[in-house]
Amino acid sequence: MSSCRCLLGAVLWLCLLPVAAVAEGYRISPGDELSLRVLEWQPVDGQAVEWESMRGDLRVDAEGRVTVPFLGPVDAGGLSPDDLSGKIAAGLQERLAVTTSLDAIIQVTAYRPVYVTGAVRNPGEYPFRPGLTAAQLVAQAGGGGLGQGNGSVDPREILTREGTMRLLQLEGERLAIRRAMLQAAIEGHEQLVVPERQDGGTWPESLIKSENEVLRLRRERRTRELATLDNQILLLLNEIESLTGRAEALELLVESARREKENAQSLAERGLAVGSRVTETERSLALTEAQLLDVSTARLRARQAITQAEAEKQALRDRDLIEDTRELQRVEEELERVLASLDTQQSLSIVETGLVLGSGLTDEDLTMPEPIVTILRGKGQDAIRLSGLETELEPGDVVTVAMPRTWGRWFDDQRSRVSQ
């Protein structure tokens, strides 16, 4: 059987040689997509028979496991495709009591994506393929897109960039006024305090009016909610006052019923009253005391409801303050990101204009500084950092593109040349 198994393994290896070469040394991780085939060696027929029912696709979940028919969840994270193949084959052979040679074939059909961020036109997630380098990924993401020192710029890119800058400017204005509205809400102002523009211009009146309207609606909503609780408290106070008056009346009735009971008992002891009279006075006293207890309990519940309503009023104020503060932090972060993007787009626009108009510039003038590329591989304490455009990537790598310090000086040089 051992020789048959070796023969089967050799046949499979020859069939999958290109894939095996790619996957050599690769370790399976969450997010990978795998394909599974199971073959059984039939010594009588002298051939391998595939189990069609086992053919299928497997996805590695967040915990690094795959679900295999008849086996259930199987740990796959950190294993090579060959290691996982042997693990599945051994598990199936033991679970299904197969006496002939059995082999599982695991292939990686889709790797985890790679990510690019930083100074590129289109940051985000990109599919991985074996042999992908950092330079190729940066090129896909639109890095270094101002021409390669030849002064060639697509006019469509200029138009697209102008539209992008306009959208960023509008978004920045919206976020700046939204920030002012949130600050006014936190400080309790009835209208937002319009900040000064850096360019000395005026804010769109429609935008200010819209945010003031939002501020007014927020204030009215809070006023209505607080008024509802105040009305509830007022009703409870009236109820307590009414219950207090009723309790006082019942206390008088209880005192009267006690005296009547004592008189009845005294007369009964002297033989001047029957026992039923005493029983009747006792029943009347017990009934009146029960009513007084109910009124006292209702009055206590009303006081507890008032305390809860007061707590809800404070919680309402705290909730609005917390929500407004969180929203203000989010808006400030988004505004910072938009302004940074706008500044980058404006700088790129100046350079592109220079490339179009700068017929007197030399190739050396038009050559942009090479970006700094950093690759983060792995997570947590096991993460490592690599660098270089020619670095071959692995699935899950995060590539960060940054421009060197000479980048700003290069932009300044282009601005000065364009203005001359």
Short précis:
The protein has helices at residues 2-15, 17-23, 81-95, 134-140, 155-187, 205-269, 275-357, 363-366, 406-419; strands spanning 33-42, 47-50, 56-59, 65-68, 72-75, 102-110, 114-118, 124-126, 372-377, 384-387, 398-402. By secondary structure, the chain is an alpha+beta fold.
Largest sheet: 5 strands, mixed
Overall average residue pLDDT: 78
The tally of beta strands, per DSSP, is 11
Q: Approximately what portion of the residues adopt beta-strand conformation?
A: 5-15%
The coarse overall form would be flat
Distance between the termini: 84 Å
SSE pattern, N- to C-terminal:
HHEEEEEHEEEHHHHHEEEH
Helicity level, as a percent range? 55-70%
Which ranges are low-confidence, i.e. pLDDT below 50, for 5 or more consecutive residues? 1-23, 144-152, 356-366
Judged by helices, strands and strand pairing, the structural class is alpha+beta
